[in-house]
Amino acid sequence: MFESLSKKLDAAFKSIRGQGRLTEKNMEEGLQQIRLALLEADVNFRVVKKFIAEVREKAVGERVIESINPGQLIVKIVHDELIAIMGENNVPLVKAPSPPTIIMMVGLQGQGKTTTAGKLALMLRKKGQKPLLVGADVYRPAAIQQLEIVAKQAEVECFSLGVNANPVDICLMAAGEASMRGCDTIILDTAGRLHVDEQMMGEVRQIANQAKPHEILFVANAMTGQDAVNSAKQFHEALPLTGVVLTQMDGDARGGAAISLIDVTGCPIKYVGTGEGLDALEAFHPARLADQILGMGDVVSLVEKAQEVVDREQAVKFQKKARKGDWNLEDFLAQMQQVKKMGSMGDLLKKIPGMSKMMPQGMEGADDELKYTEAIIYSMTPKERRMPQLINGSRRRRIADGSGTTVQDVNGLLKDFKKMKKMMKMMMKGGGKGRGMRGKGSMPPGLPGF
């Protein structure tokens, strides 16, 4: 989402890096570029004005003038200001002193509210809680059925009184239902509209007043930019919002909503949706997003995701094999499947510090390359996967036909696999600093996801 903004900010920093010291005069061009980059990313203009003023004040001062490296320091100042404007730290969900904790989801129609309720329920279930999803949207066709499907996928409890019931009654009766089912968290999926209107606001106000939720989360689509910010502001004026959930943060929009929301509404962003899957919901960490925007990666999120989805036992076994250099295509296939659980290859690589600047333009197609690689390996017999040296000319033709690829593709995979085994062994022995790392730094084309 922030790829364009990252590149424009990097260009702005380059115009400053060559200066011996930071002054009002030599800062102006760089600040103008930063201002334009933020505005083009759909950041609220008042937020941009405040942001630039803060950066200028901190940059053009005695402490900065005496700095040895002004270029690096301006990056740090922008980084710190991004964190400050997005809320400093992650704000966790409030937990009721005695269960159930009631979480109310509000927002306009089509922003991903029902799916987000399911994602949140799944996340809480994985943390050992027992959530109850409550269908209080009696207006949108099939909204309750959608919630029931989502609940089944998340393996959590679901409750509703049907489309003829009063939404307020549904939410009030949910507390008794949660007690009967042994649920400690209630997630209320309320109705939305295509735009803010008094009828909707009146209903959610009534639910909030009577159900007394511990959290009122506004759900907005990050791709709607300033519309998301304006809607959040209107809802916050009508309800005591406690937080925001931004959906579709993996999209290709300009992403300024994430930077503007907290400053404009005063509400923290608590979670962000990063994909379509029910497990694609992450806690929002301002520092990590600032790192990504400035091309510094996000290793912490990468490690957390790996710990969540990667089979630890399988990883340890592979590491032992890699040290000896005796892993095969079957092991490689298993590793690819582990990596795929973590998300798209492009997104994963961008979380590695410095990788976003090194990545070739075509890296977005890495996931397609993985599919071809998988298809080739699946077309091999188990024996061929374990002993690639058996694959002669006729076998290669059979594998190519079975995978819908060419013999050249199969040859390329086998050749790159052989190189990768050798490189991996050298890396393991040298702790990642061996001679095998002194090449061009590019990844073998046949194994883009390794």
User: Under the CATH scheme, which class of the largest domain?
Assistant: Alpha Beta
Gross geometry: flat
Measured by DSSP, the beta-strand proportion falls in 5-15%
Secondary-structure class = alpha/beta
Low-confidence stretches: 431-450
Mean pLDDT: 80
| Number of extended strands | 8
By CATH's scheme, which homologous superfamily of the largest domain applies?
P-loop containing nucleotide triphosphate hydrolases
| Main sheet makeup | 8 strands, mixed
CATH fold-level topology of the largest domain: Rossmann fold
Oligomer: single chain
Estimate percent helicity.
Answer: 55-70%
User: What is the rounded Rg?
Assistant: 26 Å
Q: How many independent structural domains?
A: 3
Strand order of the largest sheet: 3-2-4-1-5-6-7-8
- Secondary-structure arrangement, i.e. CATH architecture of the largest domain: 3-Layer(aba) Sandwich
The ordered string of helix (H) and strand (E) elements is HHHHHEHEHEHEHEHEHEEHHHHHHHHHH
Count of discrete alpha- or pi-helical segments spanning 4 or more residues? 21
Alpha-carbon distance between the termini?
24 Å
Give keywords.
single chain, 450 residues, alpha/beta, Four Helix Bundle (Hemerythrin (Met), subunit A), Rossmann fold, 434 Repressor (Amino-terminal Domain), 8-stranded mixed beta sheet, 8 strands
Topology (elements, then pairings):
Elements: H1 3-17, H2 24-40, H3 45-59, H4 62-65, H5 70-85, E1 101-106, H6 113-126, E2 131-135, H7 143-154, E3 157-159, H8 167-181, E4 185-189, H9 198-211, E5 215-221, H10 226-238, E6 243-247, H11 256-265, E7 269-273, E8 281-283, H12 286-293, H13 299-309, H14 312-324, H15 329-340, H16 345-350, H17 355-358, H18 366-378, H19 382-386, H20 393-403, H21 407-430
Parallel strand pairs: 1-4, 1-5, 2-3, 2-4, 5-6, 6-7
Antiparallel strand pairs: 7-8
Helix pairs in contact: 1-2, 1-5, 2-3, 3-5, 5-12, 6-7, 8-9, 10-11, 18-20, 20-21
